[in-house]
């Protein structure tokens, strides 16, 4: 798997720039550039920080988009849409679900 490519893909889906990701993770933009340029292997800690910033699990990071084998079609659609939300919109959606009595 192209880890840097996956980070780019996830950021693009969420409308997050490298600058914003840098702020969210505490990893400098130059470090991201170096990782991409040199194709360095990322540490588990770095991947965890990136996943936390993107609001996903490490499992989701390494799984193909939309690959949820134990879910119904409707649940997969909801998760696909959820993954594309930025953290603020996720928080808003979560609050809406609470109001609907879903949680």
Please specify the SSE layout and strand pairing.
Elements (H helix, E strand, L loop, with lengths): L2 H12 L3 H8 L3 H10 L5 H11 L3 H5 L10 H11 L3 H13 L4
Features:
68% helix, mainly alpha, Helix-turn-helix transcriptional regulator, 7 helices, Lambda_DNA-bd_dom_sf, 103 residues, globular
Q: What is the compact description of this entry?
A:
With 103 residues, the protein is mainly alpha-helical. It is 68% helix and 0% strand.
Task: Walk me through the structure.
This is Helix-turn-helix transcriptional regulator. It holds the Pfam family HTH_26. By secondary structure, this protein is an all-alpha fold. Helix content is 68%, strand content 0%. It has seven helices and no strands. The chain is globular, with a radius of gyration of 15 Å. The protein starts with a helix and ends with a helix. The mean pLDDT is 84.
Question: How widely separated are the two ends?
Answer: 35 Å
Task: Tell me the helix content.
Answer: 55-70%
- Strand fraction equals under 5%
What kind of sheet is the major sheet? none
What's the helix count? 7
Low-pLDDT parts are none
Radius of gyration: 15 Å
Shape: globular
Number of strands: 0
What's the order of the H and E elements? HHHHHHH
